[in-house]
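=== How it folds ===
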Amino acid sequence: MQLLAAKFNQIATAIDATNAQIAALQAKLSELQEHQQQLLSVEQACQSALAQVGTALSMLNHVDPAEIPTFKAAVDAQFGTDAIAFLEPATPAPAETVEPKPTAPIAPEPAATPEIEPAIDVQITTEPAAPIEPTPAPTPTTPPDIEAQLNKLSIQSIRKLAASRGISGNGTRAAIAGRLKAIVTNADLRAIG
């Protein structure tokens, strides 16, 4: 026979309800993290596309500047309603707000017999407190200059990296590095060696 069986059941019910709320919030967190990753991919693709348009415009200006209006019209056509109509927009999941259900604290049921608190012996000792030494503030670090690191690569390595990212590998090392700097990370550079 448990004396506090009702209390244990109340607490177990509150724990189950809290766990259900945590599970719902974790599911929502996963959805938001996935959407954030998709946005990052889109951002990188847009940056890459802008770099490619810039490269094409530069090359066209060098080869035949009279064709720049034709190129502009072709780019503008990509934003026409007919061109965009062929693309299927992503169907976002309906945003469902998960609000935790408030639970009122459960007051303990009055006991039939008064509870007797055990006596606790306390012994006070005085010891000098050790001084707390301040921890040094972290020094701000500046991220390494990716373009400078790209310019240190061999021309073969930087062209190979450009090809793997869908960027034109034509031109000087500095020109390729300028196109790659927005989409290459330090991890990519460490992987090359």
The mean pLDDT is 78. The CA atoms of residues 50 and 179 lie 9 Å apart. The longest helix spans residues 5-63. The helical segments are 5-63, 68-77, 81-85, 146-152, 155-164, 173-180, 186-192.
